[in-house]
Fold each of these.
Amino acid sequence: METRLLPLTFALLLLGGCSARVVKVSPGPLIRVEGQPVSIRCDVIEYGGPREQDFEWEMSREPSSQKIKIISTFDTSYSHQSVSKRVASGDISVVRLKDNEAELKISEVKALDAGFYWCQTPSTDSVISGNYEAQVQLTVIPNTLKVSPQTPPPNVPEGSDLTLTCNVTRELTHPTYLSVTWLVKKGTTSEEILTFGPQGEVVTGAKFARRYADGGIRLVPGKNGVFELVISRVTTSDEGIYECNGTEWTHENGGKWIKIVESTKEMGTVAVTPTGRSLSVKASSSSSPSSSSLQLSPGDTMTLLCSVAADNLPSVTPEVTWLADGRELITMERSGVVASNGSRRAEASPERTEASLERTAAGEYRLVVRGVGGPDGGLYACRVRAFIGKEGRSSGGGGRWHMVAEKTSSPLTVKVSDIKPSFTVTLEASQSPQMTAEPTELACHVTNITQLPPGGRLGVSWEHTTLPGVGDDPQASHTIASLDGSGNLSPGSMYAERLKTGVLSLSRVQPNTFKLRFLRTQEIDMGQYVCNVSSWSINSQGVLLRTAVYESSPLTVRWDTKRPSLNVVAKRIREASVGGATFEMSCSVTTENVGEAGYSVLIQSQDSLESNVRTIMTLSPDNVMQHGGATDPNRRDSLVLTKSGPAEFRFRLAGVQLSDRGFYWCDITAWTKQQPGQTWTKATSSESNKVKIDFQENGPSFSIAIQSDASSVYPWETAKMECSLSVSGSSPKTDDLAYEVSWFFTRLRGGQTTTQVAAVDRFGVVRKMLRNSSSDISVERKDTHTYLLNIYGTQDSDSGEYHCIATPWYLSASTGAWTEAGELMSSRVFLTVKFAVWDSLKLPLLYGAAASLGVGLFSLVFGLVCAQCCCRNTTHTPRSRNKLMDLEMD
């Protein structure tokens, strides 16, 4: 144990020998101002002994003179009698900051406190090493800082500049530095505006940083300690009590700036006079400045003056707007750009001059409107918005603007003598309809126009009154549409759709002639028509105003109404007397009171007069042909429907078959259009007489049968079903005969839900349908008349009824065309998929017996092995005591 402690003790001695005590104080020399507090910090590191260290402070006037004990952290009687009273009063104290850090504090330093200060730490180390004391010099200078602010003006107009002057000086006996700070006090809180110094730098308060960057706050250093702070374009937010702070600094060896003395003086209270308090705006006439009204005649020039006055007018930038009846007429922006809001005056009459606005003197703006008319009368007022701009160096000189006041003058009444225009209105029918769907055109003429002002315009409004007994609301008057002085169309609610589609149109064909045109006149359009012509003028605001309205005499439009009729005649062009021949018929159309029309054609047929009607083909009014749902897709090339004349249509069916026998006719509908590009409107429709296709052909006879090789099978076996067809009568050759065969499956015996399993067409193409079974199927043709269905890997879901359907096709000897015979359906056979109980259970039983036998044999062998190993008779020979002793000694 002792051999292990020796190396540990030696390592601890080496570690203790490597550490050395270090005592440090604040870097000096320290320069402080008389009467100000002084703190000298001392700390010790790399020491031994307890964590909490004690400190002793001493001082001397000179480095070599006798030291005076000042204060200790552990000895209360340590202080010299010359400083004991100051220690007792607390003027001199020591404060422990940490276990290894303390601070000597002098509340009010005196000149006699200048000298050298030592911080000592009594040794607690096992080995003396390092330094146990540190020295710093304290220099005490007199307080010579003086702060002398100038009192700012108590009231400053909004938008002007405010200059804050402050004089900060001190006597330079030691290397100290000055800074000056301006503050504004609002309530009980002072906000720092800007600080200059102590080494020439500028620091702004958070709320004034952007304003300083924009140039709204400028620092002007002067001579002999005079500093000026200029706040440009003050606003009401700049009100408050301004203060000036002077601070003296020292820069110690540690690199820190230390504030050694400061002084704050109140400069004075500044109030900002709002612009709105002194802003005044007056609108007057240049001809009669004292009058509140102005009388003008049409064509005169109107001159109005806007006078703006304010105490700080040079400091603000106004935006001047003239208002006519409360609406903006023209504006001079802050930049001097004039923006007119009555530009429609120039559009209405190019020879008339636009309203103009110009600045004639400081605070005076003149509005001039030439060639006034009746609509220019009204209440005119001048609105002024005063802005104060904030210079913006950082934004390229653009700056920011702040609106400080807005004021509108009392209104000035302007009256313009009203001379009502006069003219005569006549209405005539330039095109009258003789029947429904013909066009109608009415012309409204304006003559004898007098006293229409320059730039005046004409508008028109059309009205219609129905005849008694026509329409749902007889003798009701409705507005068709109107055109105002600018040509804007306003449709009536009943005619909006017809105007939108172009069936109905309004136009101005000459300066004094308006027309109303119906492309296709309807019966409801009969009645009395009136046109109302109005005159329009534009006022000084650029707004169209109606000045007069004159009405024409009513004009009656009517004709003898005749209902449209249509007659269709069908006739046979080519007779189909035998199968495979071509059938052709034509349908001719005759109409009355329909006019220009388009026709849609339906070719329809039925097997007998009592059977269902089938649509074979259709032809739209735009000559688009489509096949009907009853048309076999394989025979569409044999069907043709064409327009053979203006009112004649032909239908052709090539290669007729027995299934084509029956009656055929045309169903034709006449359609009219209101105008090109619009949708068709049905006029009338009619069916033709019926044409019959009837021929006899003695073809072969067919029969069908189905049989299965087994009625029941086991799962996974193959089931086979044979569909056999036979032919009798005039049997065609083998190459002239083909079949379409399909197999169908019903889940339950006699069930109604039948699904198709597979099919083969007459060209030998096989189609298999999706099934709910994992089994597979195939279709094969054994010979010309026999088809076989194979079901591989049968499952229980394949149990059910099966039957086949066949359609024979043969090549007719008389026509040389393939002919479709009637569809044949076989009887039904039922297939049962049996469930083999023994086959499904023999493997699980065999596996279970083998597993039981294996487990029994394993248990028997395992028991014999355990008996031999655990129950054997063994003899234990104890080890001698001597041998045990020998082993332990080894």
Amino acid sequence: MPVSPEGARGGALRAPLASAVWALVVLVAGLAFTAELARREWVDARARAEAMQQSLADAAQARVVEPLASAALALRAMQTVFLSNDDVDGTLFAQYHDNLHTRQQVPGHVATAFARRTPDAAGAPRSSYRYQLVAPLQDNEALLGLDIATQPENLAALERARDADTPSLSAPFPLLQFDGAGSGAAQGVVVRLPVYSRGAVPASEAERREREIGALAVSLRLEPMLRHALQGRILEYMHVEIRDLDAAPGQEMVFATDPDPLAGSAVQVRRAEFGGRRWELRLWPHGAVPGEGRTHLIVAAGGLISVLLALLLLSQATTHRRALDLGREMAARFGESEARFRVLNELLPALVLLADARSGRIAYANQAAREHLGPVVDAPLATLFADPALGGRAMAEAGRGGAWASQEAVIVGRDGGVFWASASLARVEVNGAPYLLMVATDTTEQRELTERLRYQAAHDSLTELCNRREFERRLQVALDVRARRADAAPFALLYIDLDQFKLINDVSGHTAGDQLLVQLVHAMRQHLRPGDVLARLGGDEFGLLAFDVDVALAHVLAERLRRCIEGVMFVWQGRTYAVSASIGMVLVDHDGCTLKDLLAWADSACYQAKESGRNRVCAYREDEDASRRRTEMEWANRLRWALEQDRLLLDYQEIVPLAPASEPGTHIELLLRLREEDGTVVLPGAFLPAAERYGLMPAVDRWVIRTALAHFADLHPCGDVLRTCAINLSGASIEDEGLADFILDTIDEFAVPAERICLEITETVAVRNLLRVVRVIERLRRAGCRIALDDFGAGMSSFGYLKNLPVDLIKIDGSFVRDLGSDPMSRAIVNAVAQIGHQRGLKVVAEWVDGEHTLAVLRELRVDYGQGFVLHRPQRVLFQRPRDARRVA
């Protein structure tokens, strides 16, 4: 049927109308869905924001006190200096201040000062406290001579600190050093601590008032101190106000940020207390709530998607117009990008200059060049170099087309100042004319950082002395100079080891130990000659290189240092410590010695000083004892390497029943071996004495215990049905408080039945510290372990020990068993040990069984077990054998 023109026109009208209706429906539905998502996200964001605000308030409460506590700790360290030496001068005061790094560790630090007390004069209302020592002195000169008694806030804090010997905090007040800087910039506080006369810390208030000689103070600017403490998320999201609740009316405000509170937000209130004052913190959020960005993103994205879907239905009729609009938009963006590129080229951080190659004058300088160099256009390029000859050579080389790139040069900057730069010059052509293009980067900060890192790599951070690496380098240089020059003067190496330093760390903590080291270094420096090199080699070990000395002068210098250290009285938190040092000395007056030799000789001499009673100087002597100690040191180092490289080995030797009625099963004892780097196997007699002397036995014993239990089923061909595995424990391990815990934890970790572990303790060790050994033994036996008393008879034997020691087995020392067939006394002793052991219900084991005749006598004496080459030769444990050799024996 034909369609009338009116119908066609109506259809044409209905199609756009239908598209518009559907577009509206899609838009409304999309916006409704977006609104619901945004609402839910907003609720979650508010909950997260409230939790975050509470967390930030808690953090602010703790962090505002941290710089005050750091200042108090620095004052406490300075107080100990006065307790040991109450006649501190300005130089020494500045040295201690610099060493504590107070300016770096306490934000807002202005000055550390000492005010000496002048007692009440006749007619004077109170004592005066005038500042005598100030560090740093620069910009703080106004404090010298200032009487604290004229400042009521400071005086009140001083008196509180004096009577209680606790840090005291003043009320906020304008600092004298910032007079005229504005009230906010000048506001500060002072943390105070009293100073008492030399001696122990006074215990009562009356004694404190009697021995008071002055007061220490650290002044702090409130604004930088608190901004640093609160920096980060606290100030990013929260407005903060801090008020001093103890301040006078109108002076309560301590700190406040510019308020821009978020409407309807709750105020978080916290209270911080320090030094007798109370600060109230009030915090509330400002700006946008964290997380609202996601809400906005949901709204924006959902609304955009909804609009785009709606517009998609209407886009067919406007495609061409939209394409044209898009093209115009892209062209506009391209123009903007080009402009940005031009701006970026001008704002490059590198210095870019263009000079006429013919005249050498500068034609163009970018912004960075103008800022560093000033108005240099039309100036000769060569004049930018502090060394004009270098500039001339660079221009000549670049002008010939050569490469002059990445060269370090000193450049003359604005107002005549100089800086280091990495510069490059190249010849270029611009519009057909020759030019020289110079690109330079300021490397001054990088060079300063490099120098600072180089210094830190060569120096100890605590004492500012050379570290071990730098000390050994300088020692090697001295040896090289001596090897090249026949007329080189002799020099001495001193190895200084503090006595009982670990006691101070254990009792008073590492902060006390660090402060003691600082005081000792300051004291020792006063006795050094120009050119002497003092270094910190380890925790409490120092080294000294003294040049151009003979034996007598070296010994005088060593004694001077020893007496200096002995004279230091260290006081920390009410405790007074006496300090001494053992010093080993080596005089280098001939060629042929190496760095390793010198360090070993010095360590050996120091060890001799300690063995001789400590607090003395010993010179190295090449004798039998010194050779033995050097050999032991070498073995100790080789044993350390073996532990690190897992080159320790285990052999097992079977313990064989001698009586037919003995309990069934296989019993073994583990024997330690060391494999050298070349594969040679070393028996324990060569390295165990060194391990005992140098404190390595606890580490060795723990390695054996853990390794044995971790591979218990792979020790012996019988596998996990092994009846007993015996492990030797050294005296040093028995004295280790954590040994029993380690053994029991390892047993639990690897699920080895405790009754299959036998721990052997020598008679000498057991007698040396009977009470401690008994406690350890009883704890291990309660867990199920068996205990053997090894080498019985080799020491100061007493059968009374068998009555008091809770052991399960006695192992008769092999020296009696070896002579059993030829020495009637040995037979009598073995017989007595066997009878008494059986009387106590103990098993008896004979060691060093090396012949059939000995076996017959042992059986006759009813000894339970035997161990020796005639019964079984030691073999490598199964898990350390080559794979093709791990077969059942």
